[in-house]
Amino acid sequence: MARKDIEQLDDEIDLREIILAIWNRKVFLIGISVVFAAIALGYAKLTKTYSNTISFNLPNNEVVARVNTYDILEETRESIFSNFYQKITNKEIQLEELKKSPLGEKLISKIENIEETDLILRNYLAKNLNDTSDYKVSKNTLDKFNRNTSLTLEGDNYLVQGDFLLELFFQINDYERDQITNEYKQNLRKKINEIDSDIEFLTNQERNNRLSKIQRIILSDKEKIEALQLERQRLIDKAKSDRFARIDRLMEARETARDLGIIENNFKKINSSKDSTLTLSIGDNQKLPNWYLYGEKALSKEIELLQLRENDESFIARVNEIDYEIDKIKNNTELKFLKSRENDALYVDRIFELTAEKNKLLNQNFDLKGVEFVTLTKSPIEKTSNSKTLLKVLLGAIVGFIFGLFVILIQNALKAKEA
C-alpha cells in the first residue's frame, strides 16, 4: 500500500474517532451548553435592557389646513413631516435635549471628566438611539409616506428612556411650531411689503398724473390767455386805428364846413316847422354829411375830444369780456385744487382695496398652540419589552457548545498520546 494511501486511512480513522468521541460525550456537550446558556440568561436578567420606541406618521389634513390659514403658507403634509423628521433625527438637537433630560443628567453623573460630556453623550446616542424607519428622508422628498417613522432607544431604565423620547418629540413639535410661525411672519411681512410697494407705486403714479395734468392745464391756460391777449390787443389797435381814421374824416368834414361857412350845426333846420323847406340830394343808403349836420364848431370839438382820448379800451365791449375770461383762467379752480391736493392715495380706488387687504392681514390671529405637526402612532411608554434576552441565551449556548467541543478534543488528544 502506498504511503499516501496509508496517511489518508489514518486521517479517516482519526476523524471517525473524533466524531465518535463527540457522540459519546454528547451528554457532557449538551450539559455544558445548557450551563453557559443559563449563565447568559442570568446575565441577561441581571443586566436587563429595555427598548423604547416612538412612532409617528404624516399630519392629518386639519393640521395642514390650520398651518395654511389665510393662504400665507403653502405647506403640505409631506413638507411638514419632512421638516419634523429631519429635526428629530438631527444629532445636535438630540444631544441638546439629552443634556436637559433626566436621562442625560443620569448619564452625566457617571462621567468623571466633565469636558468629555458631549463626546460620551454623542456615543451613547449613536449606540442606543436608532432610527428604525422603513425609509429615509431625502432633502426634498419622502419615499414612502404610508409607513411609520420610528426611533428606538435602548437602555436599562424604560421610564427615563420613554420620558426622553416623549420630551424629544414635544420639543421638536415646539421647534416646528416656532419655525412655521416664523415662516408665516416672514411671508406675511413679505406680502405686506408687496402691498405697500403697490400702494406706493399707485400713489406715485397718481401724483405724476396729477403733476402732468397741472402742467397741461398751465400750458393750456397760458395758450388761452395769450390768444385772448392777442385778440384784446388787436381790438385795441383796431379801435385806435379807427379813431385816427375818424379824426381824419372829421377833419376833412370840418374843412368842408369851414369852406362852406357852416359854423353851427343844422339840426334845427332838419327839425323846423312844416313850412320850412330843405332839400338835399343824396344818394341811396347815404347819410347826411357831417360837415352839414354838425358844422365847423361841433366838428372841431369832436376832433379835440378824439385826440385827447388816452384809452380806447373802455369803448370796446369785447375787451371787458376778454378781461373777464382771462381773470377766470388765471383763477382756474381745478388747477388750484390739483396744486393744493396733499394725499394722492385718496383718489385711487385700488389703493382702498389694497389697504383693506393689508389691514385684514395685520389683524389675522395665527396661533398654532396645541397643534401636533405629526401623528403620534406609538408612545414610547405604552409598553416595554426585554431586548436581546433570547439572543444572549442563544449566544451563551453556542459559546458553551464550542467550549465543550474544545474540552472533548483536548481529552481525545491526550488519550491518543497515552496510547
Description:
- The two termini are 24 Å apart.
- It is rod-shaped, with a radius of gyration of 60 Å.
- A four-stranded antiparallel beta sheet has the order 2-3-1-4.
- With 419 residues, it is mostly helical.
- It is built from 15 helices and four strands.
Strand content: 5-15%
- Assign an overall shape: rod-shaped
**Radius of gyration, in angstroms, nearest whole number:** 60 Å
- The tally of strands reads 4
Biggest β-sheet strands, sense, barrel? 4 strands, antiparallel
Number of helices: 15
Our measurement of the CA-to-CA distance between the termini, rounded to an integer number of angstroms, reads 24 Å
Encode the helix/strand succession as letters: HHEHHHHHEEHHHHHHHEH
Q: Which structural category do the helix and sheet elements fall into?
A: mainly alpha
Query: Helix content range of the residues, please?
Result: 55-70%
